[in-house]
Amino acid sequence: MKNERPETSPFFARDRDQHPPAYTPWYKTSVLRSPQRALISLEGTASEITGPVFGHSRLNEFDNDLILNYARPGQMPIGPRILVHGRVMDERGCGVDGALVEMWQANAGGRYRHKKETYLAPLDPDFGGVGRTITDADGYYWFKTIMPGPYPWPNGVNDWRPAHIHFSIFGHGFAQRLITQMYFEGDPLIPLCPIVRTIPDPAAISRLIAPLDMNATIPMDMRAYKFDIVLRGRRSTLFENRKEGN
Amino acid sequence: MVQPLGYLKESPSQTAGPYVHIGCTPNFAGIHGIFEQDLGAGPLYDEKARGERIAVNGMVIDGGGNPLKDALVEIWQADADGLHNSPSETRGTADPHFRGWGRSPGDMETGEFLFETIKPGRVPFRDGRLMAPHITFWIVARGINLGLHTRMYFPEEVEANAADPVLLRIEHRNRVPTLIARKEGEGLYRFDIRLQGEGETVFFDI
Ligand SMILES: [Fe+3]
Q1: Catalytic residue positions of A?
Q2: What CATH number is associated with residue A207?
Q3: B203/A93 CB distance under 8 A
Q4: Contact A18 B35 (CB under 8 A)
Q5: ipTM above 0.85?
Q6: What domains can be seen in chain B, in order of their start residue?
């Protein structure tokens, strides 16, 4: 099943139990950055249910190949080669076509290419750590990259992030905007991580853990991990709500 | 037993973290040579766009009064005639010279974001009443667990703001001014976003 554009109805109400609350003091940075007042609920208007289109024409051939998109000629980054693939769907199970998927990550040693990053693991001269792609007509996407390393971070005295890839997804409407992180099956750091634990529901956490996918693994080349992403669904236009009073 | 409804659940959000700029504005973060240009950078209009050119700047400020230096702010808005440059726009065809979407990292030293855009026209609410001109904002950063949605309105639109169906939803009327920009010059607006505490900006669950 595929979305037929244009869809113009509002999104399903967001189930906030699936998401972290704003105030999670064990993740210390949230303490001063969490709104304290209740959000004002508002069924989406045209300002929120519409969104821009990101054309395939803006992308380059290697935008989704992090093994090659920053490497010097003839070189490759150090670390295990992996393929990350999956499908962007909405809550109805419809593939979201044309979604902008941006991702960024640390290198195999757990180091980001950022001037404020101070971890002592080395930069990899052949790894930038950023890629982007646009989902196909059925919502599928893929990246080739290097398995990121876990890294320590200043929060508790001994907090480590599990290996992860950051994802930013832009579907069909501004209200669908989502940023999240992908984790790797079997990583013992996942249940210890204060950022993972901002999500109260263990079942919700499990939906961010990508399984090893031997069917998509390329023999003698790279292992595959499958990461599906679900964005908010839209109500059917057949059942448009009645006009509001007053 | 009943049939399962069969809906999927939205993927849970996680913070954008301290290095969101690597992923969303890599050239700004100093990673050159992968993408020619950062998406959403630069003016939202080209020289042929209709409407009044404006600039919107501001900061995202935490509960301690400090500007965030690692935030990412995105805006989305209608063109001068109130139409969105989107396939989901059903009321007409938007100005092709205005893209409606912008993305700005805060300045690494000051935290100031900047958008060069046009003043939007009015967009109807769901019941057909016209909303006052506004720009929709989305803010992510380290320490923000789920991206925050808000709106900026224009101070000179006194009558339209007073009748705006969204602003009328705000029960605590003393919070409405948190959504109204300050005019600092011809076509120049300032919109500071306060995450917490005194003058906390109104955020929406949309
Ligand atoms: Fe990270």
Answers
A1: 112, 151, 161, 164, 166
A2: 2.60.130.10
A3: no
A4: no
A5: yes
A6: 40-194 (2.60.130.10)
